[in-house]
Amino acid sequence: MIDIKAYQKEISAKTDATLEKVLPASDTYPGSIHTLMRYSTFAGGKRIRPCLLMATFDACGGRNNNEEKALLTAAAIEMLHTFSLIHDDLPCMDDDDFRRGKPTAHKAFNEALAVLGGDALCIAAFEILATTGRIDIIKDIASALGTNGMLGGQVVDIESEGKQVTREIVEYIHRKKTAALICVSIRAGAIIAGADPVAIEKLTQFGELIGLSFQVVDDILDEESTTEQLGKDAGSDRENGKATYPSVFGMNESKKYARDLIEKAWKEIEFLGERGEILNKLAEYIVTRIS
Which CATH entry fits the domain spanning 4-288: 1.10.600.10, 3.40.190.10, 2.40.50.140, 3.90.960.10? Predict the structure, then answer.
């Protein structure tokens, strides 16, 4: 039996060590932006995306083969995730004061530097990805971030505030804004490990399902948790009139849907057998946050 907390701790430590190497030092001129990049990146995230990437990499037989490329990709994806959080918290977006229990970047520094720091993390991430030589993965990640991915989801999220929305709109926002980057993390791990196309397709379906479940659970936690528990502003979705599952379908149906998604996801990776144990446990972790 694998201790999932120990595994997460191991991968988080490896990811942080890689990030420490690739991020500019705080005393490198201009120090203010490099300090902000490090402040936000090392603010205490759970490193879910790197854990999913490395768990997939291991499950597909990648251990001891191309692990450095996998870790560099995981670090780059974490930088891209951090960039998205910095921008998401800005006054022109969600205007949040706290993230991971600390003041958001624009509060700890200033708004202009937060915009530039987020941009810098995004650019630096692609510079790191370029060193891996995997054009296919770079294209995949770029697509997950673009207007058919995270940015598109963010646009529809903003445009839907305060409006009556359909299930299709809520699901579009969640699939693009959150699930896309989670899914591409899993795909990257499989591709670097040399998985065959059939396995990659099944893992893609797994990633889409757990990515959607992850955001449904986040919506639920925003309603049911405190700011202290979340480490970010609780209740902000409701205050901003966000299109969320609980606001549209109610809490009970949202909880059931989150669990149903995880159960469907597990079926997609049954072909991995015991090799999929870590991925199964990471999926379980996502939904048990509301148990």
Answer: 1.10.600.10
